[in-house]
Specification:
50% of the residues are buried. The protein has 422 residues and is an alpha/beta fold. The chain contains 15 helices and 15 strands. The structure holds nicotinamide-adenine-dinucleotide.
């Protein structure tokens, strides 16, 4: 049998534990080291090792730099990073400098444009692979639509939409003991994401979380593979939702009722692509609303939207001018990856897509090959955040996208989800 991949984790909060649980299920992975600075998260992680019947990993926890000690371990084949956004770039670069050849990072490669450039340059310099663990690219309906796109069902693609439309008020605030709601604290008095993510809503105004929306869309129009994002402009509404939530749940007198949030409740971004498509992205996390990533894929022959689970394809849909339930198509064009591995996704988070994103990472490590999504994909998807902040700060000015591939986008070939292996 092939030797198991020796994996380390930096950050085993709620998301890291999700990946940890999936990694512990795999026979081809040994989790040898974990690092976190929150005892509660480390305890929860230890119980996952017990539950899986796997030997406990070595723990690094002394301070915010304990991960550097972990990287001194000579045996690590790969590292997964699931820490707050602001830590990703320094941790990725630290891993690269320590000689780690495969780094899987949770979403958002960095904060500033400079972060993104530095990570790209470091990955090139060390000839190593940085994959952003963008799981929505593996959503079953999204992959079926990708399959349809590649078979030309929608004709030539013209316009796409996506976004992050998710009421996060109970994620941005809690009572310090549970992850979701129960209080209006954030920062040091809070637990999990409310400890850090909310600060970004205080200080920043832009599309703070573009990758779940843009990743799947970028694969469909081959961004970095014969196509690229050329320019962007963003618009933000006023900010009311978070303040409203604090007053409603904590009262006017609660100290957090004085906090001024900079993040507009709905941020809308338009992107223009080199091959002539437009992409509309929305970030909408502060208001009451049901979850929806709001995908729309539209071409010269037809259109799919996820919010009404419907499509229309000229000459194929039976009734002119009328939406047709997409279900039969989603089933018929089920992606080969889902056909082969669907049963293995049992118990993996987010409807099974978390299985695939880890699977793709681990299989690439085992084969010592490129990851299906690479550092250029991670950089250009994440760079939407600083670019949208810039555009909004400049009064919605159109700003240019940097070309992280340095012209190679014209020649590179998409490697995402061809075939049924990983
Ligand atoms: N792809 C998805 O579906 C998805 C879902 C949830 C979260 N995420 C992403 O995962 C990442 C983590 O989010 P989360 O929900 O797990 O947040 P979390 O707050 O639950 O976990 C973050 C963990 O990082 C630890 N940490 C902070 N600084 C550290 C340091 N210097 N060294 C070691 N550990 C440190 C914290 O103690 C905490 O346990 C974020 O990038 C988030 O956007 C992605």
């Amino acid at each position: 049998a092939e030797p198991a991949v020796k994996l380390g984790f930096i950050g085993v909060g709620l998301r890291g534990q999700g990946h940890l649980e999936n990694a512990l299920r795999r026979k081809d992975v040994n989790v040898v080291a974990i690092c976190d600075i929150d005892e509660r998260m480390l305890e929860r992680s230890a119980s996952l090792f017990k539950k899986a019947g796997k030997p406990m990993a070595k723990v690094y926890k002394d301070d915010v730099n304990a991960w550097k000690k972990m990287l001194e371990l000579k045996e690590l084949d790969a590292v997964i990073i699931a820490t707050p956004w602001e830590w990703h770039a320094p941790m990725i670069i630290g891993c690269l400098e320590a000689g780690i050849k495969y780094i899987g990072t949770e979403v958002m490669l960095g904060i500033t444009l400079q972060d993104h450039w530095e990570v790209v340059k470091a990955a090139e310099h060390h000839n190593a692979h940085v994959m952003m663990l963008e799981n929505v690219c593996y959503r079953r309906d999204v992959m079926a639509v990708l399959n349809m796109v590649r078979q030309g069902m929608f004709g030539e693609l013209i316009h796409l939409q996506g976004g992050y439309q998710h009421d996060l008020r109970h994620v941005k605030f809690n009572n310090g003991t549970q992850p979701y709601g129960g209080g209006v604290e954030f920062g040091e008095k809070a637990f999990s994401e409310a400890r850090w993510r909310t600060e970004h809503s205080v200080h920043r105004n832009g599309d703070l979380y573009p990758t779940h929306g843009i990743g799947p869309v970028a694969e469909m129009i081959n961004i970095n593979y014969g196509n690229r994002f050329v320019s962007l402009s963003s618009f933000a509404t006023k900010a009311r939702g978070l303040h409203d939530y604090i007053v409603k749940n904590g009262g006017e007198q609660h100290p957090n009722a004085k906090v001024e949030f900079k993040l507009g409740d709905v941020v809308t971004t338009m992107i223009k692509c080199a091959n002539g498509e437009t992409v509309l992205l929305q970030h909408d996390t502060n208001l009451p609303r049901p979850y929806s990533l709001g995908f729309r894929v539209q071409g010269t022959k037809g259109i799919w939207m996820d919010v009404n689970h419907s499509l229309y394809i000229e000459g194929v849909s039976k009734t002119n001018d009328q939406w047709e339930d997409a279900k039969a198509y989603i089933d018929k064009y089920d992606h080969p990856l889902w056909k082969r591995w669907g049963a293995s996704t049992e118990g993996a988070g987010h409807g099974g897509m978390d299985f695939f994103v880890l699977h793709a990472f681990i299989e690439s490590v085992k084969r010592k090959t490129r990851t299906p999504m690479d550092v250029y994909d991670a950089a250009v998807w994440s760079a939407i955040t600083p670019l949208s902040e810039q555009s909004i700060a400049l009064g919605n000015e159109t700003v240019e996208f940097p070309d992280f591939t340095n012209g190679q986008w014209m020649y590179r070939k998409n490697r995402f989800a061809f075939g049924d292996e990983y």
